[in-house]
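Late entry, evening session. Most of the bench is empty. Finally got around to the prediction I had been postponing all week. Sequence below, unchanged from the version circulated by S.P.
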Amino acid sequence: CPISAKCSSSCSFLFCSDPDSVAFCVLATDEEYECDIALQIHFTLIQAFCFDNDINIVRVNDTQRLAELVGSDEAGEPKDTHCILVTNPSADAWKDPSLEKLSLFCEESRNVYEWVPAITLPER
């Protein structure tokens, strides 16, 4: 798998072992990381993999707010939110209205040549 060296172990395992179980990929960055060349290369590899496997991608430009929404790990440390995979546990999951809306949003964005649409997270 071309992204296994760059992705966290759980993400790379899921991407490489069962890409069909991934419903969405959320890539997050903010101004602090925009000049991080390694992260941008990482994102390019992930985007290529997602495009090849028909996985919808959205981009979020506020890693701190996303970390607040995702929460922290068992040790209380904030989670790395640069790449989050939303899994699709069953075929019925696509009937979820939120997943359907997000999928439609991605499809409509691609129709106007916005391949990785950006989402603005709501304030608290």
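Two things to note before I forget:
The radius of gyration is 14 Å.
Residues 1-6 have pLDDT under 50 and may be disordered.
Will write this up properly tomorrow.
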